[in-house]
Amino acid sequence: MKKVVKFGGSSLANAEQFIKAGNIIRADEDRKFVVPSAPGKRYDKDTKVTDMLYACYELAEKDHNFTSQIAQIEERYQEIIAGLELELDLTLEIDTIIDNFKRKAGADYAASRGEYLNGIIMAAYLGYEFVDPAEAIRFNEAGIFDAELTQKLLSKRLEGVERAVIPGFYGAMGDGTVKTFSRGGSDITGSIVAKAIQADVYENWTDVSGFLIADPRIIENPKGIDIITYGELRELSYMGATVLHEDAIFPVRKVGIPINIRNTNKPDDEGTWIVGNTCQKAKYTITGIAGKKGFASINIEKDMMNSEVGFGRRVLQVFEEYNISFEHIPSGIDTLSVMVHQTEFVNKEQNILSGINKAVNPDHVDIQSDLALIAVVGRCMKSQRGTAGRIFAALAHANINVRMIDQGSSEQNIIIGVANEDFEAAIQAIYAIFVDTRI
Ligand code: ASP
């Protein structure tokens, strides 16, 4: 068996956390490939090393002095090295980083050093080989991750390697320029490494015991999710559920490697399993609820719209011209609505409205703003009668006006639009009807 284990920033924030991670790795000899993040926050008001690096590089870029900032970053690593009682000297590495900052190697390079240095420490601590992802994780000239080339290079690079530490979050373009994924991207690295070595499991160690059915800021003590499919997770993370980077499932999903989200501070908890398919019934009809505020809906009405071939395409083309992606397009017989992120839309609003008028000559267009979307997700929904009925009854009971309904064709999600101010109450009502009553 081969396992890839990724540790997030809070799991490696100081020596004490490093020791917990080390104990977890040593407790199972299948944990052969380790992907570390940069040191995260040690306490609530602390700053992540990645943020310190971005701030430090900003000074370097303006030719300002950054001596004390880089010294503080070095201090974070020294504290870990001392706490682990390692004989490791990072002076040369830090000097190289300072030189590269001075010659303006880029913000991505700067941020990536957080994982790079943590990787060096982790490799020394475990006695594993250090593999720099800049060698094998590739981005194209446009800065887009090149999955195919990476798979080729990385599987070759790791061939015959028994145990290795591969820092998360970054890779490089063909010319060697370092490029990072978006924030939280070490999750993606873990998934890429799992695919490259054909791992049996990708364990993602963080500071919570897996996914919760709903956001704990909205529901007090929500229940956890034991098992969830990639498809369900995709829907939930797209709609705002955090814990795992939303792009992290793609590499492993293709090859069916399960992801196990675990808690570094409670290693005995089973966490959440993310799998391709399962015959395991979820405990409740729904697997999870997530949502986001801040949408606007552009509602277009025109008599006989349904017989006008190309109507939808012409409307969407206007949005495309202004580079606005749409979230949902619920439609009626003579109505079509396009839901978009309000902040992206607001500055282009008048151009888009006149574009729609020109493109389809509608009878009426109106805009609803300040809407929230809530996704109720569950693989078990399609085999249960009355799920939608229960959701809407619960919302009606809570006096919440439903502004939009969209059931995904996969029948594993129902998306509901409500006013921003009803968002929390709507989630509470849905949670109560499915989870608290346990039907
Ligand atoms: N260190 C990076 C961040 O703070 C990447 C990661 O932790 O996954 O976003």
Provide a descriptive summary of the structure in words.
- The protein is 37% helix and 21% strand.
- The chain contains 14 helices and 17 strands.
- It has helices at residues 15-26, 49-61, 67-83, 91-102, 107-126, 147-157, 186-196, 230-238, 249-255, 311-321, 342-345, 349-360, 387-397, 423-436; strands at residues 3-7, 31-36, 129-130, 138-139, 164-165, 170-173, 178-180, 201-206, 227-229, 259-263, 272-275, 288-301, 326-328, 335-341, 364-377, 404-407, 413-419.
- The strands form three sheets. Strands 3-5-2-1-8-10-11-9 form an eight-stranded mixed β-sheet, sandwiched between helices. Strands 13-14-12-15-17-16 form a six-stranded antiparallel β-sheet.
- Strand 13 (326-328) and strand 14 form a beta hairpin.
- Helix 6 packs across helix 7, helix 7 (186-196) runs parallel beside helix 9 and helix 13 (387-397) crosses helix 14.
- The model has no long low-confidence stretch (mean pLDDT 94).
Task: Give the tags.
binds aspartic acid; six-stranded antiparallel beta sheet
Summarize the structure.
44% of the residues are buried. The protein has an eight-stranded mixed β-sheet, sandwiched between helices. The chain has a six-stranded antiparallel β-sheet with strand order 13-14-12-15-17-16. The chain has helices at residues 15-26, 49-61, 67-83, 91-102, 107-126, 147-157, 186-196, 230-238, 249-255, 311-321, 342-345, 349-360, 387-397, 423-436, and strands at residues 3-7, 31-36, 129-130, 138-139, 164-165, 170-173, 178-180, 201-206, 227-229, 259-263, 272-275, 288-301, 326-328, 335-341, 364-377, 404-407, 413-419.
